[in-house]
Each structure stands twice: as structure tokens, then as C-alpha cells.
Design goal:
Layout lengths: L10 H12 L6 H17 L10 H12 L4 H20 L28 H9 L9 H11 L3 H5 L6 E2 L4 E4 L2 E2 L7 E2 L8 E4 L2 H10 L17 H15 L6 H14 L4 H8 L4 H7 L1 H20 L2
Helix pairs in contact: 1-2, 5-9, 6-10, 11-12
Amino acid sequence: MSKKIETNELFCDYFERWIKVYKEGAIRKVTMNKYLLALSWLRKIIPELLLSEMDRTAYQRLLNEYAKHHERQTTMDFHHQLKGSILDAVDEGLIARDPTRKAIIKGKSPRQKKPKYLSQFELHTLLSQLDLKSDVNWDWMIMLVAKTGMRFSEALAITPKDFDFSHQSLSISKTWDYKGGGGFLPTKNKSSVRKIQIDWQTVVQFSELIKGKPEEEPLFIGCKVYNSTVNDLLRRRCKEANVPIISIHGLRHTHASLLLFAGVSIASVARRLGHASMTTTQKTYLHIIHELENKDIDLVMRALSSL
């Protein structure tokens, strides 16, 4: 961004320009859409606010207005999307001081959350309801996601070549552009490129299932795919199994939760899920980690009392 930009420019125009310069072509389409959504809210809330008028009071009023329509976490995300552009404007001398300093994040009370994961017994019950035919269907993908913790887009991109049955592993190196026109895309980040160990039962099942399939063609793609198609089937299977209804992404949460409760380290779970850092895993599964810490305290107390 050039220092020659006039500070009587509208803030929303500056933010749009900042997105094009710093974000366009550097982030995934889904992330870009979030920035564009933030821009649309700026045009609704502060359509006439000048860049030079963006001070702490104006910024807090902006956040307060946004928070009337969104939960606190969504408001926090909005704040972080704006903050990067504002700090750049401060560095360039377009804004005198950082208006985001000590910003107070508000928001509507969160809606009652749907269950994000199943217990081990519930998952076992669900898997027993799957219609695992002799040819590939969505039930097979539901089972594979439950066993590996893959993201939906990663599972769609799986090809027969990705299986290494001799080493009981599955390679994740790409995703499928199901939101766009189809086709392979890179993984979410470098850490998402990984090998996932699979159990012997999955090895036996999939070694039979993929026989004769083209090695480099997606296993689960036959036509245009929608997230809702698989989620609708999973909803039916959950009802048939009489377990809480979860989404396909909920199976990923279930996989990680069961590993953590089984005593698998956070580092190993993070690698298996393809998280960029353990911090992501810790934030996502903080409630489970707290439960495990409480169990650890009980174990410590028992050990000490026996001395």
C-alpha cells in the first residue's frame, strides 16, 4: 500500500484495497470469502466513515453494532480480520494510533450447540448401521472418516493409489474442490500433508473394495458432490442407530476425542489431524483436555495417598 493514499478515503474502500493487495491469491477461496463478508458488513455499518476518522471510539462502535447480530466468537473473528488492515494503516501513517487496542468484544448469547462428537459406544453403534456394500458408496466414506479423522475435502480426494496396505497407511496429499467446479486442490496447509496409520480391519476391507479401480481417480466422486448429501445420509444413519445426530465434520471431532480419551498425546493427535500446530488441537479440544486433567489429578492423589 502506498503512503500517497489520501486519508480522506473511506475506511471500507481502504479495507477492500488492502484485501486485494495482501490477501488475493495468498489465501484459500473459503478464507477470502470471509474477508469479503467482513467488507460487506463494513459497508452496511460504517459506509461513510473515513480512514482518518477511525479511532478507538469509532472502532468500538463498529464492533458493538456488529455484535448485535452475531455471537461473541464470530465478533472476535471479525475483529481479527479488520485488525491486520488497521495495523498496516497505522504503520503507514494513515491512522495516528492503533484503534483496536483494548477493544472489548461483545456478542449475542451462543445458541445451544449440537453435539460435536459421539462416545466410543455411540460410534460403534453408528458404524454397525452402515450399509457397506461390495461397491463404493457414501457409507464407506463415513466409515473411513470415522477411522482416520480426515477432513471432508481430503476424504473426497482419496484415490486407490493413496493406500499403502503393506505399511497400513493412507497418504493425505490433496483435497477435492467440491465447493467449486471439482478437481484436486492442495491441502489446507503444509502440515495437512501426512500419512495416517489405519487398522488391519480397514486394510482388509479397502483392499477388497478398491480392486480394479483406476489408481489415480477419486474413490468417492462419481458426479457433483455436496456436503449436504453426505450429511443427510449420516443424519439418517444416526437416527437408525439412535445416537446423537452429528455432521461429517463431527466424525473428525469424534475421532480426535476418542484418541485423547484413550491417552494418545496431543502432539500425535495434531499430526494425525493435520493441524498446523498443537495450539489448534488444544483450543479445539480444550474441554476434553480439562476432563483428562481432572482424571490425572485423581491419579496423582491416589499415588500420593499410597506413599
